[in-house]
Amino acid sequence: MKRPRPQLTSPLLPEGVDVIVPPPPFEACTFIDKLLVYASSLVVVGSPLWFYGGVVYLYKKWKRYRALAALSKEGVVEDDDCIEQENYTSSGESSQERPDGMQRYTSYRKMAIKYGAALAMLLCLSIWGPHRSERLGRLLDVRRWRLWDAWLNYVGFTVLHDRGEGGGSVAKPTQKQREFDMQTSPAIFAFIPHGIFPFGLAFSCLPQRGYEHTWGLFRPVVATATRLFPLVRTFIAWMGGVDASRSAVSAALSQQTNPRTPYPRRVGISPGGIAEMFETYPKPGFHPNDEAALLKHRDGMFKLALKHDVPIVPVYCFGATKMFKRLQLPHFIETLSRALQISLCILFGKLGLPIPFRQRMVYVIGKTIWPSGNLSGEEFDRRVKEMHDAFCNEILRIFDRNKTHYGWENKTLRLV
Q1: Is residue 301 exposed (0-12), middle (13-18) or buried (19+ Cβ within 10 Å)?
Q2: Confidence label for 327 from pLDDT (cuts 50, 70 and 90)
Q3: What SS3 state is found at 7?
Q4: Angle of helix 146-154 relative to helix 31-44, nearest 10 degrees?
Q5: pTM
Q6: Is residue 15's pLDDT more than 90?
Q7: For a 10 Å CB count at each end of the chain, is N or C smaller?
Q8: What's the pLDDT score for residue 88?
């Protein structure tokens, strides 16, 4: 049975667009909210800098004190940042007291052990740990943290549902389509665009306030490279994240998925992935008024939808690309980033730091794209193309219909 959802209308919106989650007042974002956003962004978004910087720092300290301990044991001491040989008498005894040398050796050895232990602990926690489990996320009630309210107030989190004319499904309505409940039924939620940092996907599945009246719980599909972001990786694990490989996503959508999970056969994905973050200004050939969606040659999502007989719900997130800016690096960096599936870019926000600009984020849900039947061979390929075309047309439709009330009347969405 479908759950009733709050729906409002506004004369400022196009006909057929309902307000699912109204925007919070500008003053709802308090000074405390801003502090929480700034601090958490520095810690989470900036985690590659401080984490790997910390690893290098601890390693250098461990290596230095280990070397000093070995030199002290051999009778070599450090004095004013220089390593000097101790003066020995003709009898072979040191001109300094032996206990001082042993104390120095013991002190250096203890320091080497401390830094080595800290380094080992940091590396172990980043690779493995009981803290990185979905069960712990539920025990910590992570989805209801006050921190997420601060973020959603900061970005003016808003959700609209565009039911207007145009676009549509590729198959006639069926009983299954009429019974479809966006909050509980199996589905693939496709969020466009990815952005320099995937805030659009993150805010849709992490805070309870982000999904409880909109699309419900689902498992986010994330790039394998997120394992290099220690804290990001932990939050993804708490949300039940799925690796972006086709086999992992297929398993999450399969009928064998445990139906007792809070999101059986429900995933959220950003189809453009890491590559899409490079397909915007300041890349040569793009204008500041261009928005881009990397969709033209990406059909894996539609093949999975047909294979598992689940619909695709298109969602465009206005503002997702404006949270950060990036520097345009040489083309080979982009090529290397795509090959390694790692976002090799220099991003910055407020004051040049990894703190996002305050940008209103408006999610617009489009019309559901439906698969049809068990197909194979040429018929399967033809239906994949039909769904792909329908999805692209729907994304363009909801962008063009809603860009004016967002304040982007001069913007153009390019499919690349």
Answers
A1: buried
A2: confident
A3: coil
A4: 100
A5: 0.85
A6: no
A7: N
A8: 41
